Amino acid sequence: MKRLLLVLGLLAVLAGPAASATKTTPKITVYAASSLTDVFPAIAPNETYSFGGSNTLATQIKNGAPADVFASANMSIPTTLHQQHFCSTPVVFTRNTLVIVTPTSNPGHVKNIYSLTKKGVTVAVAAPGVPVGTYTQQILKNMNIAAAVNANVVTTDPDVRTVLAHVTTGAVDAGFVYATDARTVPGQVKVFKIPAWAQPKVQYGICVVSTSKNKPAAQAFIKLVLSKKGQAKLLAYGFLPRVKPKS
Questions:
Q1: According to the CATH classification, is domain 98-198 in 3.40.50.2300?
Q2: pLDDT of residue 246
Q3: Which residues lie below 8 Å from residue 74, measured CB to CB, with a gap of 6+?
Q4: Fewest Cβ atoms closer than 10 Å to its Cβ: which of 53, 84, 131, 247?
Q5: Which residues are CB-neighbours of 197 under 8 A, at least 6 positions away?
């Protein structure tokens, strides 16, 4: 009997380290801009994601939403959250550009951005508080066509994927989206470039949410996104290097 107990005790001791070694890292919840809907799960498929307009997600975080990481399509929203003690200091993890998309049939006969000033052309944009919406208005202002294009706007949407959906379904003649979003619907849209000189500085920021109960795992996720592997995946999905190459 004593020998049996001794053997059982020894097995328990041996099982202890093995059990702890197989303990998995806890899943985290990542709140991220809609334009990251495809690439983030490709980088880290096992996490829980909530995608939407960066401004809406920030409001949810301030209201106590259970997020561990926040990834925004700009730097100003996470910077404000940091200043209000809702998240860590944000870092730039990628960049992007805007394009114009039309249905493949191009019912509005769009040739370039100036076509959107023509009477009767219907345009979709994101709301001003959404990063892509703010970027859109910056472009229109830079090109001195804001009044004319905004007169043709028939919908202001909560995120970039809604703008894209309005275009692919033919609800509008054209819309402003990120270049990366246009790539997600091959064959469904025509893409028109916007002059480089009119493009705003589109930088994405990421941070750890202050109320996260899994901060080490959240930091590990950010480290993965910033890693060579994570950056390669972002580039593969059409995003730009986090630091603009020197010309």
A1: no
A2: 74
A3: 54, 131, 134, 135, 202, 203, 204, 205
A4: 247
A5: 142
Residue 91 amino acid letter: V
Q: How many CB atoms lie within 10 A of CB 146?
A: 16
Residue 169 has what pLDDT? 98
Of 15-19, 134-138, 174-178, give the lowest mean pLDDT range.
15-19
Helix (H, G, I), strand (E, B) or coil at 151: coil
Cross-sheet strand order for the sheet of 91-95: 48-52, 29-33, 69-72, 203-208, 91-95
At 233, is the secondary structure helix, strand, or coil? helix
Cβ burial of 134 (10 Å; 0-12, 13-18, 19+) is buried
pLDDT given at position 5: 45
What the block records as the tokens of 127 is: 């709301």
- DSSP for 195-210, please give it: -GGG----EEEEEEBT
Its CATH architecture, for the domain 29-95+202-236, is 3-Layer(aba) Sandwich (3.40)
Q: Residue 183 pLDDT more than 60?
A: yes
Q: How far is CA 6 from CA 3, 14, 17, 19, 89, in A?
A: 5, 12, 18, 20, 54
Name residue, tokens 């049939």. 105
Burial class (CB in 10 A: 0-12, 13-18, 19+), 220: middle
3-state class of 93 per DSSP? strand
| Structure token digits, residue 215 | 């901060």
Exposure on the CB side of residue 101, measured as CA atoms within 13 A: 32
Domains 29-95+202-236 and 98-198 agree in fold: yes
